[in-house]
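I am still getting used to backbone structure tokens and would like to learn alongside you. To get us started, please write out a protein record for me. Start from the sequence, derive the backbone structure tokens from it, and show both lines together. Once you have written the record down, we can walk along the chain together:
***
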Amino acid sequence: MAKSMAWGTPQHIAARRLAATSESPAVKWLLVSIAVAFLVVFLFVPLGVVFGSAFAAGIMPYFKSFADPDTQASIRLTLIAAAISVPLNVAFGMCAAWAIGKFQFPGRSLLITLIDLPFSVSPVVAGLVYVLLFGLQGVFGKWLQAHDIHIIFAIPGIVLVTIFVTFPFVARELLPMMQAQGNDEEEAALTLGAGGWQTFTRITLPNVRWALIYGVILCNARAMGEFGAVSVVSGHIRGLTDTMPLQVEFLYNDYQFVPAFAVASLLALLALVTLVVKTVVEARFES
């Protein structure tokens, strides 16, 4: 008779872990079928409808949709908002992750909680907060008006809310890596005579480079696709403050279905490219 394994030993834990993941083939196929069916219904079918509707009138009307000046302006504004918000979030994410991951200080837990705030606050609420701060009737409204500075219903407001809704992505990807690595390598480099910048560029940054790239990809994807907060502060001025998601809404409500789905398909393509890059980076990160 085989001797039973003692409770809590490594052998016992390994046996329980194996038993917990050794499901029958029927259960495995059921779970896989549910996952595939969910993806088909909620991902592939909507994407198929978007691209099918975009090319419903043919390939020429599809490309002609992008010749509209307002659509081109919305693409430019989307890229501008992403081009400003992503580098600022990279700088903030590096500083926040460095401070939280490498040092102990009062308020550290509070700072982690505040970084997660955009995940829990509705983007519409965030947009309204910025209107209350920088709108004509807001806290700084009279001062901004006196100095002829326009933030709400202008590009600065769109950039500000985009920064707000995207700033946790880089910090959240870097923080676990920096916490796991500790300070040993940096302290050794400093002991051997390396300067602060050398330590950062040759020790810290290479160790977190894949997490940083991963965070940048997620941040950029959210920046280009943000709708709620941008909708509140944009004022929907066509050709000036409409980003691509807002342009899709306007075209669709104006019964211009082919142009609306053409712009939507461009956003979907950007998302698909982001997923491909994310998968490649994730594979390199895990390896």
Summary: The chain has a mean pLDDT of 86.
